[in-house]
Design brief:
Mean pLDDT: 93
Order of helices and strands: EEEEEEEEEEE
Number of strands: 11
Radius of gyration: 13 Å
Shape: globular
Structural class: mainly beta
């Protein structure tokens, strides 16, 4: 069974940056993509980015250019570098592991989430 633990969330002013981390354990991770989703208050969970261990990345069109996903296979850790943050980026950010179907991951394992709050 996969365990995912996110960290790095917090409060930041608009225009600032944060880096989220997601450490995975409990499984062999070769060839299984990992990614990030987020859920703002009153909204559905939305796709942010995903990465395969070969280094292929996919981003939400609306976030491309400000967010960067990367991974350290040796550490089974995925990162999300977020720059030029806006108040509308405020959300709980979730790490996901599993087989993606487009920008969805219906059978993914999920982390507990980390809160990101961007103040104006």
């Amino acid at each position: 069974q996969v365990q995912l633990v996110e960290s790095g969330g917090g409060l930041v002013q608009a225009g600032g940056s944060l880096r989220l981390s997601c450490a995975a354990s409990g499984h062999t991770f070769s060839n299984v993509p990992m990614g990030w989703f987020r859920q703002a208050p009153g909204k559905e969970r939305e796709f942010v980015a995903r990465i395969t261990w070969s280094g292929s990345t996919t981003y939400s069109d609306s976030l491309k250019g400000r967010f960067t996903i990367s991974g350290d296979y040796a550490k089974n850790t995925v990162y999300l570098q977020m720059a030029s943050l806006k108040p509308e980026d405020t959300a709980v950010y979730y790490c996901a592991w599993g087989s993606f179907s487009g920008n969805n991951c219906p059978a993914c394992a999920w982390g507990q989430g980390t809160q990101v709050t961007v103040s104006s």
